[in-house]
Amino acid sequence: MLATLARLFLPSWRFFDDEATGLVLKGRITFASGAPGTWMELLPPPNRRLHHVLWNPYGNRVLAACSLLERLTQDAAAGEDSPTFARTHQLVVHLVREELTLHEARGASPAAFEWRLCERTGAADELLMASGPHPW
Amino acid sequence: MSVDTALRWTQILAAIAALVGTLELIVTRRSWGDRGTWQWRSLRDELPWAGAVLAARPFLFLLILRAVAALFLGWDPSLVATGTLWATSLLVHLRFRGPYNGGSDHMLMLVLSALFLASLGSGHPVMQRAAVVWIGVQATLSYFVAGVAKLRSAGWRRGTVLPALLAIPAYGAPRLARQLVGNRTIATTAAWGVLAFECGFPLALLTPAATTAAIALAVAFHTANAWVFGLNRFLLVWAATWPAIAAVGAMIQGARSAGG
Prior knowledge:
Chain A is α+β, with helices and mostly antiparallel strands. Chain A has helices spanning about 1-10, 55-80, 85-105; strands at about 20-30, 40, 110-120, 125-130, 135. By secondary structure, chain B is mainly alpha-helical.
């Protein structure tokens, strides 16, 4: 908590200061029948509308989720056995389930799901992390 | 701009920024509800003392309280309204293990902290002035530091960063913007425009005309960022700092006139 507060009151202000690569989260469900669904890209941003200049709740949710993914890569680099990484990882699992519920699994009867975190550089996606199957 | 006027405008604009951010969180409550991404069950180990205010249901009431405090700050500021908005904003920050929307949350918290201190020292002009100076200096630094950091990047100097940023799927940048920065000349010109604006921002404090021009450019810069990247909260929060920048500029210009 102290680290969180320190970061809050001592911002770096270094916005967009280098070449950026986008993190891409993909997920798929496994149906109760055992058949796997197709991999789909999660966290689609809402199509930009003029009012998003002042009011953009779903766009900001996507950006907050991407910050969570960045945090996962940072926590992983610091050590995958740390409680911080475990917590961030758990939130990402929740994120994948929430996204799949919104975009894929509504009305379906999934038994499990899995996810991949990739880094998009140009047209290629480099795999950073892959999960095993999580029970739905 | 006088310190009193700057402080009042800062209160109004910070209240609007906090209100919009709070309502956006309420609209997306599914994501921090019991089955959402930021569900309390997975966060409570970090903040075991805070379940009474940060679990899903009390968190909704906390957000409503924050919205009401923001309305009061904008309408009729008081120590209670400012303190409540500051405290609830801090709790929201802890709830998401840091900023929900990066730098905009940092800046809003800095602005609210300064307003809270000014409220505590209500009746003491030194405290009011210190609050305005703090906000103005931090805002000026935010542009300048961001500019210098970019200037050190070869990608920014070459003009390759903007197209790469706009290609990041999460931003959902409009096709027109992506097409524009697909042109190398436009991308490089835009990059150097950003570098010149951010690195040159401290010059805004030197003359009234420079202050006006810099704030006008800042309005255009943040509005463009809100449209291209969807960063509406940066526009709203940084708008709350512009009165303080104008007031600090007036102080510096006054001191230079008196000295020269």
